[in-house]
Design goal:
Length: 95
């Protein structure tokens, strides 16, 4: 399934290419980022509190809360037209 279209300019030559990112890749990136971000929150919470249990609780709450907040953020941005482009309709050919 198509989830993104990116235009990459190859710095080494005069060629450019259009690449896509699958939904699966986006989901895996989101999960791995959430794990990295939550781990850093746990480390910071531990340094502040000195308590492993509290740090893990903060990390757990942050993990769930950030997923919910991100979902709401994405849904709101879907309603905003800023920066959206309508691609031209594909040309139909008859043979």
């Amino acid at each position: 399934m198509f989830s993104g279209l990116f235009y990459l300019n190859n710095m080494d030559s005069s060629t450019s290419q259009i690449v896509t990112e699958t939904s699966t890749r986006s989901v895996i990136k989101g999960i791995t980022w959430r794990i990295v971000a939550t781990f850093s929150t746990i480390i910071i919470a531990y340094f502040i509190t000195g308590e492993t249990k509290i740090a893990l609780q903060i990390g757990g709450i942050e993990f769930i809360a950030k997923i919910a907040v991100y979902y709401l953020h994405e849904r709101i941005w879907l309603r905003i037209s800023f920066g959206k482009k309508k691609l031209p309709d594909p040309v139909e050919f008859e043979i």
